[in-house]
């Protein structure tokens, strides 16, 4: 069933009122649907927040579908999605753009190439900031004015004051507790509405495997759904790292299992990513009981 038509009528109306119907030069940046919510109210609540101009922060373990949800929201609102992938090396240019030498009418000139933040603001599109808590704390205050009621920024590279066009919104994602991450300061966190995402399970996961992977063996699909449940429980008990329960990794294993034996697919997609031998052994034992 089409995701849009599965939403309540009042949410459909909310989307329609805020939908960017115009054709743009960034049609290739409009995301594709595919997010399946573990909690049915999550996608409705995120849509409501975006439709009211709120910034959205998606929290959850790796592979829980944060990026896929952002792409699905881009699809529903028909909004191009500009992205920033944060790291400890993130600087102002990663958000704003950079200066470069160009030639116009035979003369050398300094040109400015706009970055994802500038383009999203000027065209009124979505900005997706992935792993925002990987950025250096001194970099993020740059966007405080973008995230509050002002919706403005003074570009230090050009001195241009940029006012966000209507429709501009920020969706950020965060993985808490991972190496290299830091705590978001309260001033920044207070500029977002926070949504906690968890791994999908059961029939929803079965549907996702059937719709997005090459695996069509029903018995194996059911076994992978059970493996996922076992891995989530093992991660909850501290027996394995959260990355072992990643849905993204599980889907990779399902794709490989359409060609190679499932236990080898699990080895390549899940086990070999883990650092500790005891964690590898836990996953290996779970796979042995199911396949």
TrEMBL record:
<dbReference type="Pfam" id="PF07728">
    <property type="entry name" value="AAA_5"/>
</dbReference>
<dbReference type="InterPro" id="IPR001270">
    <property type="entry name" value="ClpA/B"/>
</dbReference>
<dbReference type="InterPro" id="IPR050764">
    <property type="entry name" value="CbbQ/NirQ/NorQ/GpvN"/>
</dbReference>
<dbReference type="InterPro" id="IPR011704">
    <property type="entry name" value="ATPase_dyneun-rel_AAA"/>
</dbReference>
<comment type="similarity">
    <text>Belongs to the CbbQ/NirQ/NorQ/GpvN family.</text>
</comment>
<dbReference type="GO" id="GO:0016887">
    <property type="term" value="F:ATP hydrolysis activity"/>
</dbReference>
<dbReference type="GO" id="GO:0005524">
    <property type="term" value="F:ATP binding"/>
</dbReference>
<protein>
    <submittedName>
        <fullName>MoxR-like ATPase</fullName>
    </submittedName>
</protein>
<dbReference type="InterPro" id="IPR003593">
    <property type="entry name" value="AAA+_ATPase"/>
</dbReference>
<feature type="domain" description="AAA+ ATPase">
    <location>
        <begin position="52"/>
        <end position="281"/>
    </location>
</feature>
<dbReference type="InterPro" id="IPR027417">
    <property type="entry name" value="P-loop_NTPase"/>
</dbReference>
